[in-house]
């Protein structure tokens, strides 16, 4: 870099990864301020096998982080982690290099010690997340559970949810069931294993109704015995835009782990944005979203069976009212437009339109305030 950058954003993935796209790139497209963006290898994930095939790109990515740190940007936004190889050193160096350093995280990385991978055990996300909190001037947490944890070691924590843009989803217009009924799920390959939790319920729903399951994410079979009732669709922005409206019921099962209590409920927000009735495990943020959307929150396999059958058996106008109300709520409370001024304020950027935003100072336990005046809740810990 020939001159000191004013605004810099660092992400571990490119815009093809949901987390970086939702938490960084979508905001940068809207805020009206030019950012220098470094996305490590610009991949959709940092699987060790993918990194190992790109040694020269890895070296260049590590060198690029050093260039940014030496350039000492005025404002720096770091999302999740700077490098999959870092043990916290890059996060510390980059955050301390900027005049204003903001750390953003949207998963319970503080509880991710990488037990499932040797590489991740050597560079665990938990340690670098704690290091980032120690050296950031401000923290943006994706939900109240994460904010509650962050506030134990930081006195300026802002809660900004993972947001949706309603225009990115074709709204569901017909709520008459397909023949056969069409259940649906959208997500990344590494978390589709959650569907195995409700495999028996899905099998029984299929036996009773003939329902099939559309998976938008990967075309590689991984779910054993229920693959016979699955139709797989590779993810793309256009398929995401249209696929949800073609489903009858969306699904979001999750195992009850501390990590999943910290999730931001994005899959459920996507279903709502498309006006799709859904059922989801009521963990963390999901519990509140389900109440707002008027959707069921089954916990056990038997409850999942009953919830799915109840949604399929409901009259089409009942499913329609549920879907339309959820889409309206998603636009009013969880859209980029609803939160844009707060995100810009967290980065101390001019509000889109040119007006400066006063810096908000928050200390102690965060109050999570939505775009509706007076909406608030107190975060809790799982």
List the helices and strands and how they pair.
Elements: E1 7-10, H1 18-31, E2 36-38, H2 48-52, H3 55-71, E3 75-79, H4 89-97, E4 100-105, H5 118-122, H6 125-135, E5 138-141, H7 144-150, E6 157-159, E7 182-186, H8 199-209, E8 212-217, E9 230-234, H9 237-243, E10 249-252, H10 258-261, H11 266-273, E11 278-280, H12 285-293, H13 301-313, H14 316-333, H15 336-346, E12 368-369, E13 376-377
Parallel strand pairs: 1-2, 1-3, 3-4, 4-5, 5-6, 7-8, 7-10, 8-9, 10-11
Antiparallel strand pairs: 12-13
Helix pairs in contact: 1-15, 3-4, 4-6, 8-13, 11-14
- Residues in helix, %: 25-40%
Radius of gyration using CA atoms only: 21 Å
Number of strands: 13
**Overall morphology:** globular
Describe this structure in words.
The C terminus is likely disordered. It contains 15 helices and 13 strands. With 382 residues, it is α/β, with parallel strands linked by helices. Helix 4 runs parallel beside helix 6. 39% of the residues lie in helices and 14% in strands. A 6-stranded parallel beta sheet has the order 2-1-3-4-5-6, sandwiched between helices. It has a 5-stranded parallel beta sheet with strand order 9-8-7-10-11, sandwiched between helices.
């Amino acid at each position: 870099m020939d001159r000191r950058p004013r605004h810099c954003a660092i992400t571990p993935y490119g815009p093809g990864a949901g987390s970086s796209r939702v938490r960084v790139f979508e905001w940068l497209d809207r805020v009206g301020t030019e950012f220098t963006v470094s996305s490590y290898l610009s991949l959709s994930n940092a699987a060790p096998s993918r990194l190992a095939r790109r040694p020269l790109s890895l070296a260049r990515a590590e060198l690029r982080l050093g260039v940014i740190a030496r350039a000492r940007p005025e404002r720096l936004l770091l999302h999740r982690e700077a490098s999959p190889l870092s043990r916290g050193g890059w996060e510390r160096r980059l955050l301390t290099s900027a005049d204003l350093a903001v750390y953003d995280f949207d998963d319970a990385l503080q509880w991710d010690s990488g037990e499932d991978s040797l590489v991740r055990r050597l560079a665990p996300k938990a340690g670098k997340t704690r290091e980032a909190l120690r050296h950031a001037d401000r923290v943006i947490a994706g939900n109240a559970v994460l904010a509650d944890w962050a506030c134990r070691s930081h006195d300026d924590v802002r809660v900004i949810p993972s947001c949706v843009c309603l225009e990115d989803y074709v709204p569901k217009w017909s709520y008459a069931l397909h023949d056969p009924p069409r259940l649906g799920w959208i997500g990344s390959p590494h978390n589709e294993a959650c569907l195995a939790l409700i495999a028996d319920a899905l099998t029984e729903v299929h036996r009773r109704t003939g329902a099939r399951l559309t998976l938008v994410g990967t075309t590689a079979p991984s779910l054993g015995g229920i693959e016979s009732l699955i139709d797989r669709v590779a993810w793309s922005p256009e398929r995401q835009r249209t696929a949800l409206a073609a489903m009858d019921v969306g699904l979001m099962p999750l195992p009850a782990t501390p990590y999943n209590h910290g999730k931001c409920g994005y899959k459920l927000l996507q279903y709502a944005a498309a006006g799709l009735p859904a059922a989801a495990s009521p963990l963390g943020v999901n519990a509140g979203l389900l109440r707002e959307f008027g959707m069921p929150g089954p916990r056990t396999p038997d409850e999942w069976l009953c919830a799915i059958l109840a949604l399929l058996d409901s009259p089409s106008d009942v499913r329609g009212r549920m879907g339309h109300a959820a889409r309206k709520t998603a636009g009013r409370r969880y859209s980029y437009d609803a939160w844009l001024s707060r995100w810009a304020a967290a980065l101390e950027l001019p509000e889109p339109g040119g007006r400066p935003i006063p810096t908000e100072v928050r200390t102690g336990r965060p109050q999570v305030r939505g775009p509706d005046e007076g909406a608030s809740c107190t975060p809790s810990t799982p």
